[in-house]
Design brief:
alpha+beta, binds guanosine-5'-monophosphate, five-stranded antiparallel beta sheet, globular, binds zinc ion, HIT family, subunit A, 5 strands, single chain
Length: about 120
């Protein structure tokens, strides 16, 4: 585990967080600063800093972030109305935690283009 990775500490249980979803490879929990009525972060248990660090071997793992998002959307009751999934890459796109995470946002209308 990289020293001082907040999300690795959450995966390890060092920072107590209620998981809304968990599997062998990913966990999901509510964003501390929600930008929509539903705002969940889906993260791999394994540390990967940014999208730029992904390799072909991670393709199944990345897919599992999306199948988790689908299940979370159903559980949150936002699947039919619609929801947004976002993964920011690097500071210029707004990434502030350098352990990849898929934002799942819903429960309000989503504008396009995003800011
Ligand atoms: P990013 O800006 O990297 O795309 O998203 C990081 C997200 O993590 C932000 O939406 C921020 O609110 C959330 N976040 C930062 N620290 C914590 C924390 O300690 N707990 C939770 N649940 N979310 C956090
Ligand atoms: Zn990490």
């Amino acid at each position: 585990m990289p020293i001082d990775c907040l999300f690795c500490k959450i995966v390890a249980g060092e920072i107590p967080v209620e998981f809304v979803y968990e599997s062998d490879t990913v966990v999901a929990f509510r964003d501390i600063n929600p930008q929509a009525p539903t705002h969940v972060l889906v993260i791999p248990r394994e540390h990967i800093s940014t999208i730029n660090d992904l390799s072909v071997e991670d393709e199944v793992l990345v897919g599992s972030l999306y199948t988790a998002a689908r299940e979370i959307a159903v559980a949150e009751g936002i699947a039919d109305a619609g929801y947004r999934t976002v993964m920011n890459c690097n500071e210029g796109a707004g990434q502030s935690v350098f352990h990849i995470h898929l934002h799942v946002l819903g429960g309000r209308p989503m504008n396009w283009p995003p800011g």
